[in-house]
Amino acid sequence: MLVIGIAGGSGSGKTTVVRAITEKLKEDVVVIPQDSYYKDCSDLSDEEKRNQNFDHPKAIDWELLCQHLADLKKGKSIKQPVYSYISCSRSKTEFVEVNPAEVIIVEGILLFNCEELRKQLDIKIFVDADADDRLMRVMERDIRERGKDVLWVIERYTRTVKPMYLQFIEPSKRYADIIIPQGGENKVAIDVISATIEKAISKKKNK
Fold first, then answer.
1. CA-to-CA distance for 34 and 62, rounded, in angstroms?
2. Would you tell me which of 7, 25, 192, 206 could form a disulfide with 111, CB atoms 3.0–4.6 Å apart?
3. 190's torsion region: left (phi>0), alpha (psi -120 to 50) or beta?
4. What is the pTM for the complete model shown?
């Protein structure tokens, strides 16, 4: 089993990179999104939810994420949480059953800020992108997929997304084994990384 961590700022193109790598690999791949492990905020008021900082490491349930990853590495299935951005809550009745696979990809903005998680990763990839490009993608995603308006997106970007990127996410690049510039548009880098992953899988199988 090979465990790959893919980090980078919101809107950097992580999902595009994950999809491209997954399509190129001939092995079974499981993707674990960090976003499923946000702490439940259902007990907060609407105002408190609005002011919640989802770009700070403290917003993530690292203990559960690390435990689930450890279970998968042991060959056990997990019950991945289902998190709603609309209600800022983690479902108490729904979950996604995830089975172990030859390749596990963990994806999220803050992955490399957790030392315990970093130790569980075989390959750490950071997806880099221009700040303006990231903002445009964040606006498009939050309006289309999360029901937010333009003013809400800009306010959140200014208040938390940008400062948290500078404080936590960009500095975490130092932990990466590979950095992909130009985000998900860098087809050459994705091809090279896919080949590197396949080589690493082959080496593990032949041990």
1. 9
2. 7
3. alpha
4. 0.86
Q: What string of pLDDT tens digits covers the 207 residues of the chain?
A: 889 999 998 878 888 889 888 888 877 889 999 999 998 877 777 777 677 788 899 999 999 999 999 999 999 999 999 988 777 778 888 999 999 998 999 999 999 999 999 999 999 999 987 777 777 777 777 777 666 777 777 777 888 888 898 999 999 999 999 998 877 778 888 888 888 888 887 777 776
Token pair of 133, please?
């490009």
Alpha-carbon distance 119 to 106, whole Å? Answer: 13
Q: From CA 88, how far away is CA 49, in angstroms rounded?
A: 7
Domains, the chain, ranges and CATH?
A: 2-192 (3.40.50.300)
HSE of 191 in the Cβ direction (CA atoms, 13 Å)?
4
What does the alpha-carbon distance between residue 177 and residue 193 come to, in Å, rounded to a whole number? 11
50 phi and psi angles, rounded to 5 deg: -65, -35
Element (H, E) at 24: helix 14-24
Helix (H, G, I), strand (E, B) or coil at 135: helix
Show contacts of 87-95: CB within 8 Å, 24+ apart. 87/42, 88/38, 88/41, 88/42, 88/44, 88/49, 88/52, 89/40, 89/41, 89/42, 90/38, 90/39, 90/40, 90/42
Rounded CA separation 34/162 (Å): 19
